[in-house]
Design brief:
560 residues, mainly alpha, two-stranded antiparallel sheet, two-stranded parallel ribbon, 24 helices, 73% helix
Length: 560
Amino acid sequence: MRWRGGAGWALALLPLAFLALAFFWPLADVLRLGLQVDGRWTGDRLSALLADPYVRRLLLFTLDQALLSAAVSLGLGFPLGWLLTRYRFPGKGLVRAFTLVPFVLPSITVALGFILFFGRAGYLNRFLMGAFGLGEPPIRVLYTLWGIVLAHAFYNAPVVARFVNVAWERLDPTLVEAARVLGTGPVRAFLTVTLPLLLPAVLSALALVFVLCFLSFSIPLALGGARYATAEVGVYLFARVYVDFPRAAALATLMLGISLALTYLYLRGGGLFQARAGGVRGQPTVPLLSRNRPIRSLWLGYLFLAALVFLGPIAAVVADSFLRAAPGAGSPTLYWYRLIFSPAWNPFLESSPAGSVETSLVVAAGATVLALALGVAVSWTLHRVRSRALETLLMAPLAVSSVVLGLALLFAFRRPPLAAVGRGPWAIVLAHALIVYPLVVRAIRPLWEGLDPSWVEAARTLGARRLAAFFTVELPLLRGGVLAAGAFAFALSLGEMTAVAMLAGAGVTTMPLAIYHFLSAREFGAASAMATVLIAVTAAAAWAWDRAGARWLGRDHGGR
């Protein structure tokens, strides 16, 4: 402990007390319902669950799709990381910015894009049938295992690319140059020097992608339905569709144990997988499409495939919002945009489309404010108190999936004191803040650790109290990181659907949930227009986050 003031202690205990009420206590309810029968702690419910063939199929399918998704993400993401490291080309900065997509793009919009682009009546199949005179759609990946795998790869290949790019740029290029001087060919130099050095970053990326895909919810729900449901979707179905809370709690308990084990293994392996820093010299780059080296034209094939997978679905969503014919009218049209901003009650949403937009903005703003307050308080505490146990407690929500958290809050909101919150927008604000604040801590804490303590000591010497020194010295120095974290939190909250699906009461609909309801009702025009607005708002928030980070965090955004 590095301070003695009572206010400091109070500030340290405040986030812990908040988490005890809003996180640990609701989570204990899930464990109690999942592991207690007639007031007795027992594993009977888990045993019965694991004996159920349906649940076993859920778990096996979850494992299969996560493994395949990680492998396909590696296949698509590694070349992208290579491209960003070794080549110069126009728009490289834009491609690098695209690797931020999985952090901000709402997953339900990706699912919608896959349906519109790769569906049997999607844009790609219609183009191929028209171009080659085919009688049947040649691409049939939707509502199959491969549809889910491909959508997961859309999200996670940029994660792999980012890991590979960062690790590769830190490698010492003299090692490869020495191998080439000794007569080693470029392929062998890559296989014997570069690839072994990149292996820790590749394994780390694969582990993270596997965890993300194992706990995925929105994409399997939209593209798999009940037939290709994952375990996370199973928790949702038991709780909200079959209203079987004991089974939902038992499956959530099982998933909680698995997610904690995966998180522990990932963090434990992080040290082993961490790439070693190389020399001070940057990696040499060459033009992408040099005429002297025709082999680089092979990149055109990869870029075409990448554009098809990454840009096709997003372009399909935007195009469909204008080109889908309105009832009793032709296209292009703005009818769907007028519909989603209409205050009229919609039977699919049980509210108005405009109301869902307003709810999303209110929830995102509220969650951002709460997540920033909680994130700054936790960062303050962890900056002042060096305790691994305390850090584990304060960052615990990071290891719990959104579905399990949503179920825990669903139970908690049914009785005092959290029953006062109800199941309206403020319940969603609380859930989103709990999901997002650990990422706020991850953004702010390194900056705090890097501050020169002599500034605070000088303020204290001049008579400022500790809290006054925080507000007048540390917070102004951290404002860039706080603003960047706020933009990130806003974008994440805006696109989050899992907790909303678990918690929202009748008439409470956010934009992602409205897209899902429109999608379920086959109202693709309205879903596309809503998704386009959501993409635009989250892209603006991501851009603000990226620019703020570049300005205040000193990150390199050059188009190298």
